[in-house]
User: Fold this.
Amino acid sequence: MSWTRRFVLALSVVFVALATALLTAPGAQAHEERPVTFPDGSGTVPKLRTGEPDLLVCKTDRAAFERRISGFPASLKARNLTLYERCVRDGYRHLQQAVDAVDRPGLTIAILPGLYEEEPSLPPPTGACATLKAPQSSLGYQVLSYEQQRQCPHNQNLVAILGKKNLQIEGTGASRLDVVIDAKYRKLNALRADGTDGVYFRNFTAQRTTFNSLYVLAADGFVIDDVLTRWNDEYGFLTFASDHGLYKNCESYGNGDSGIYPGSASDINDGRGYDVPRYSIEITGCRSHHNMVGYSGTAGDSVWVHDNEFDHNMGGASMDSAFPGHPGLPQNHARFERNLIHDNNQNYYPYVADGTCAKPPVERGYEQGVVCPQISMPPGTGIITAGGNWNLYEGNWVYGHQRAAFYLNAVPAFIRGESAWGKQTDTSHHNRYAGNHLGVDKSGTARPNRTDVWWDGQGSGNCWQSDTGAASPGALPGCGTRRGDVSGDTDRLIGEPVKLAQLLVCADYNVQARRLPAGCDWYGARGLQRVETQLALGTSLVLALTGFALWWRRLRGNHLAGAATLIGLAGLALDVAGSTLALTPTVVPALALLFTGVWWTLLGLALRPSRPVLARTTVVLGALTLLDAFDKAILMVPGIPLSPAWLRLLLGVIWVLWAVVAAGARAPSPTGAPPTPDPAPETDPGAAPGTGAAPGTAEAPGVGDPDAEADPGAAPGTGAAPGPGAAPVDTRPHGEATA
Assistant:
């Protein structure tokens, strides 16, 4: 097998392996729940009732109780003492007992200061509850039906609130830390309110579960008011398939997924533009910190998030369309206003790598600051939108991030389990980022983000404010004064190839298997470990070797080709440098494309006399590369469904194979002798400038070279017509005398 064939075969194997790796990246895992539909929307946001409670919950250790209230203001202390006397007489010792006693809508349960471990609910299930038949989630728990939850309320829940209406549960302490409901990592949920319209939670702490502290499911009307959740495997607050909801003055930290998760909020604005009649859930006055992500929402539809603080997480806030089984996909119509989103640079993946997160939850050290990230997440990011539409991000302070302030990428529909071709590009449209304060805190102190915008390039109607700093791509569609006005709008069907490769590689994360993708900088890869740098280096080496071989074998005497080759090598070196985390948001990647485009253009001109078809292809490749540089640095080219990078990539593969064949072709000997390699071209004083060929001669077509052209007047078998000074070729039969 010739070296040419070996090279082509090896290159093909590399491309096939890369494509296979990208296309077989595993799907992500997340919260799984029984099939559920949205409420009909007839409910309302419940109001706080301030009268005397109907039911009381307390412990009977009076000395411990008095110690807890000793520092309260006098009036609050007196009230708690009065309630305590009543509770000891006719109250309950466990919250679940009081919930079970609720026999009509509109009751209030007051929990007096104390630690509530709900001992009757803690033991593992027995009897029929131990043998329930139900689907198993990917995370190992059973996905129980509503009927099974009623049958066995404590299989998964410390406190189960099922089907109650307009119930209010509040702590009577001076702060939310005075009443603590503790699942001790022995239950999936600390409190589960399922089908409980109008529920109101206020002034307590819930903690230490293997999933959620406070879970509200399928409720039309709920309020979470001044509640703290912490130290959970997954979520602090999880509300799902609910409407008319309000979170206010809440706090959450130490959670393996998010502190606040309004997943599958009622999809009341599907099909609308920016102007909507109302939002299904409002979140205000909350702080979520030291979690994997402060706020998240798969199908977090129609959620109004304003005047909150998301800080010191791995990511500040995220919404996505990346997980199947969530009603309301794709995600749409979140509105973020006036939030402080800053310093979200924590990296908790080392706890997965060193085995800490493989221990039982009670041994992991959550109370000492350990967090076990449940899904893939780019640390150092402010707001992540992975497949969302019609989202508004306006007037937020986003600063101090080591990766990016805003992160936007599309998610194809097959990821969420929808295979229809028409849906595959239905995400990442009409997201507006305008009027935000980037890289500066409220006092005006500079707190820059490494990059203000990271966008994969897919979608239409997305726009950004004009004062963004470093961005990738460098040219972004601009937001007009009115919502919906976009300058430089594009409509790309697929994101940039390198960014797509990065996202697919980084998605191959599994906390249970302790699998951290080796090529992803989200998990600590640096330098040549990063997939982007590996792709840039591999591509540059292939192009450099191919270009050098073509120059050495065919164009060594051509000064234009020599200069082009040097420019090309510089461009390829810049491409590798520009792929690094530090230089990606700078002008270096665009300069790399500029130099590489000039190289291909000049190389095509040098090839024109001897390889006209390959020359034209090379010039087109150069033009596409220059267009790609323009697209990334100056203005995204409108009206094209694919980035110039994709066209450049596809044509570049063809060019490499073609150039290898051209460089390796051997010219036949005119005398019938075995073929020999083409000698280095000699320059005749009368030769045309830049051709390296003597006047009147034409290069012989090379073996296997499809675009080499012979002169029609050339003598048979030679590929060249006799030029001036050349010896005539004797074409008479052998042995005939010469006149």
In short: The two ends are 48 Å apart (CA to CA). The chain is about 25% helix and 20% strand. Residues 332 and 389 are 5 Å apart (CA to CA). Residues 1-28, 668-673, 675-706, 708-739 have pLDDT under 50 and may be disordered.
